[in-house]
Design brief:
single chain, alpha/beta, Rossmann fold, 10% strand
């Protein structure tokens, strides 16, 4: 949406503000976000986050990745998935102060992210790291081979902080699925998450379900560039991911409660 550079004659600032709010609401409008139960569940409990929850302590989450973490396609910083996720989790856990730090940088691949891990991730002393990766390698036709070793390096850095970690795979969008490496990258990230015993948020599958099962057109959840998400899809992603994180963080608490009875 283009910014207004001048106020037209006869249009008051209040009327202009109202028009802008209507415009933003229209961009975020879309079908109801209905998270599928299997896609809103992480394989393993988030034990570190669970400990912080039980003590009512603040929780710091670092979201690192490329442009879809930074928020390309969103109408404002408040509409990015990290911002929306913070709101979702704060609603789930009102006793804890939740902070989601957006460390997305457009255009980056895994080696670029690793170069800034110490400053962008480790220095924040996170309780949970959300690592979105793989999309730019797919777009540039870079082979997925070797990525598992690089992911291992990053995971070691995260584990050294004691934080929980969730990997996030590429988006299901026209420019991504047109590339022959897309499916291979999704499979490699899933296999790496399993072998490294870390959680995976299956963003590709979530978005594919919107298209294949819920019959939502790309124009509803992908920006006009055919690549980036938009306000609706960032919000729905945050809702599904928020439910998954809340469930995985509560699992250890529920297990401990059951054992104490």
């Amino acid at each position: 949406m283009q910014a207004f550079s001048v106020v037209r004659r006869g249009v008051t600032p209040l009327a202009l503000a109202a028009a802008l709010l209507v415009s933003f609401a229209a961009r975020a409008a879309g079908p109801d976000c209905q998270p599928a139960a299997d896609l809103a569940r992480l394989a393993s409990p988030l034990t570190h986050v669970a400990q912080k929850l039980s003590g009512g302590e603040p929780i710091t989450i670092v979201a690192i990745g490329s442009s879809s973490t930074q928020g390309a396609g969103a109408s404002s910083p408040a509409a990015t998935y990290p911002s929306r996720l913070q709101a979702e989790l704060q609603q789930q856990f009102p006793r804890n102060r939740i902070a989601v730090i957006n460390q997305g940088v457009g255009g980056e691949e895994v080696p670029d992210m690793l170069k800034r891990f110490d400053k962008a991730v480790v220095s924040a002393r996170p309780d949970l790291v959300l690592w979105q990766l793989g999309t730019n390698s797919v777009l540039r036709g870079h082979a997925s081979t070797g990525h598992s070793d690089l992911i291992h390096v990053g995971l070691d850095k995260i584990r050294a902080t004691g934080a929980d970690v969730v990997l996030i795979d590429p988006q299901f969008a026209p420019k991504v699925i047109a590339k022959p490496e897309a499916g291979k990258m999704v499979e490699l990230i899933a296999a790496t998450a399993k072998s490294e015993n870390v959680d995976l948020f299956r963003r590709f599958a979530v978005m594919k379900r919107w298209y294949d099962v819920e019959h939502i057109g790309f124009e509803t959840f992908v920006s006009p560039d055919g690549l980036h998400m938009n306000d609706w899809s960032y919000a729905c992603m945050a809702k599904v991911l928020g439910l998954a994180i809340a469930d995985a963080a509560r699992r250890p608490l529920l297990s401990a409660t059951a054992r104490s009875r």
